[in-house]
Structure formats: structure tokens, C-alpha cells
Amino acid sequence: MPSAQEQHSFEFPGYVFNDQSAAVSFESALAYTKVVPALVAAQTGTLTTRTDDDTGVATLSTGHGIESADVVDVYFAEGVRYGMDATVATNAVTLDGGTGTAFPTQDDAVTVVLQLDWEIDFDGDDAQIIGVFYRNPSDTGALAHVDFQDIGNASINEVDLVHETANGGCDQITNISAGDTNPYTGNAIALAKVTHDSLEAATAYCLVGIVAL
After folding, report:
1. I want to staple 73 with a disulfide (CB 3.0 to 4.6 A). Which of 9, 82, 131, 196 is the partner?
2. Three-class secondary structure assignment of 145-203
3. pLDDT, tens digit, for every residue of 44-57?
4. Is the whole model's pTM more than 0.70, yes or no?
């Protein structure tokens, strides 16, 4: 029977502490990976119009690749707003809707990123442990976002990610077996939408221990 174990340690001059959390056993190990391509510099521009918290116009550069009717995530210093509708007129990208952090101040820098489909299929109600990670060794300060959705594209759970060795890189481990609240319950997850803000290619991981299929 496969198993997983979440471990924590603390090192201090003259002291080392390690927890002894029990291994989590499950019947099926599901591993999903997704290569997230490098962005182009033209996808970063300025929020030249801020209508309200979820509406505005980003002015990008030639070659940004965003098209009208694209669903995009928008990254900025304060966070990310995900699932926004884009309407494009050359380099002016009108953005509307979405969920997440409110738009920043007008004229702040923004990065507009097309959501990528990630084929993921599991029922969170059957999960014993779930780990979601982002690996980008060429850009360890990059940010990523994953929106887990049901078959009707309703969001079940969304997570912000940083590189695995950055502060918070292992924050998206949900150990249901050990008593963690499970945010993946409800309708089964049928897909995910993933983005990042990096000019370097990276990989996202979703690792799930399932009680039974």
C-alpha cells in the first residue's frame, strides 16, 4: 500500500528538531504534472485604466499573445486576480471580472497570463492527503496559481504557489488523515487552470493519495 509523509524540521546553532508525523497510507497514488511555459516580456505592462476592483485596461507590448475571449490571470505586486475575461485592441487589453485580489492602483505594473488547462481528475472526498507544488529553479521568486474546477468549470479550490524551496513552498499540503480541513470536497475535480508570472518555464505538481477509486 503506498504512503506519503509530511515532515518538518528546525535547525538552530546547537539544536535540531524534527517532527515524527505518521505516514499516511492510501490505496491509490495519483500524480499530475504540468509544464508551465515561459512568458514573454511583452505580457507585462501597465494598468493604464482602473475602472474598479475588477475592471480595467492593461497596456502591454507588441507580441503579448493575448486574444479577445481569452480567460486570463493577472499578476501584480499585491497578488493575483484569476479568471478574468480579456478583450484585446492591439496592445490594450480590457480586463473584467474574475476572483481574487482587487486590482492595484492605476499605472502599476501588471502581467497578463492566459490560463492553461491542466488535466486533473479526482474526487477530493476520497482523498487522504493532497500536495500541490511549483518547481522553478531558474526563477525562485516566481509566483503561480492553480484553480481546481468541477466539470462545469465551477471553482472547488484555488491555491497560490511559490517555488518549492522558497518560503511557503510546501504550504499547500493538506493532510486530511491527520485532521486538516479538506478544501477539495464537494463535486469531483475534473480539471484545473494554471498560470505563473515567470519568464522561465516551470512545472506544477498535484499529488493525491486516494482511499479508493
Report:
1. 82
2. EEEEECCCCCEEEEEEEEECCCCCCCCCEEEHHHCCCCCCCCCCECEEEEEECCCCCEE
3. 999 999 999 999 99
4. yes
Alpha-carbon gap, residue 60 to 92, rounded angstroms: 6
191-196, strands of its sheet edge to edge: 116-118, 191-196, 143-149, 155-162
Domains recognised in the chain with CATH numbers: 3-36+116-210 (2.60.120), 41-114 (2.40.10)
Strands 92-100 and 55-59: antiparallel
CB-CB contact of 62 with 40 (8 Å):
no
13: left (phi over 0), alpha (psi -120 to 50) or beta: beta
